[in-house]
Description:
By secondary structure, the protein is α+β, with helices and mostly antiparallel strands. The protein is about 45% helix and about 25% strand. The protein is built from nine helices and twelve strands. The chain has helices at about 1-5, 10-15, 20-30, 50-65, 70-75, 80-120, 145-160, 175-180, 220-235; strands at about 5-10, 35-40, 45-50, 125-130, 135-140, 170-175, 190-195, 205, 210-220, 240, 245-250, 265-270. Strands 4, 5, 6, 7, 8, 9, 10, 11 and 12 form a nine-stranded antiparallel sheet that branches. Strands 1-3-2 form a three-stranded antiparallel sheet. The radius of gyration is 30 Å and the shape is elongated.
Amino acid sequence: MEKKRKLLTIGQFATLHGINKKTLMWYDEIGLFHPVLINPENGYRYYSYYQSSILETILLLRELDVSIDEIRAFMENRSARSMERLLREKIEDLDRDMEHLKAVRRTMAYHCQNMETLLTMDLSEISIVRKKGRHLVTVEADKNTSFDKQVEMITAETQKYQLRRLHDASYGTMTAVESLYAGNYEEYSRLFIEIPFPIKKDGLHVQPEGDYIRAFYRESQENIARCYGKIFDFAEEHRVVLSGFSYEIIINENVIDRMEDAIIQIEIPCIMCQ
């Protein structure tokens, strides 16, 4: 109990709470938090141990980015109800920030994986990979849809899902397998966008979980035809049937300046023949 009766100098009180004593002087100047005693002879400030909980509340609120005006209003009408309301609001803000950071991390991991693929890939290799299911936002489009229109539609969709920027999501094109077998390799019917956080909305396209044939090609009309020809041969050799859509994405768009240098990844659902 003795320590609670003893007054602490501004330096001691600042050290106790891990802050600079100039912060305490500023709080005093703006009328937010005053010392319990100011020596009239030398102007030295002294604080009571009992003031620790009040200061810690202020420091907590500042750490939560509560403005000085908000804290001052709270301190003038401090109560359990006002504290509960203020903290609940900030918890909701933190939850939103945490969800955004998780989304950013997923986006970074996605791009990092693409860079790893670039560094180790063999463009001639075709493989079967296992993929988890995912929900995609899709936009109806085809090769006759102008580039400007495609950008406009993608931007509108990403804004609808409250993404902070376009590259918070991965996106690409979808081509029906039927079109591929007809030789229409560039006649995609949809643009897809993968939102990097869980969403519950009607009308999303479900990319199924399962086995996928994966291949790569460097951007050109000749290369895409050659790549799909190899995919058909691979499917026949390994007795698998292609289904649904081909999902194409550019995996190196962050490190190129020209579309001619783009490397496209193809993934198509496949089912083993009985």
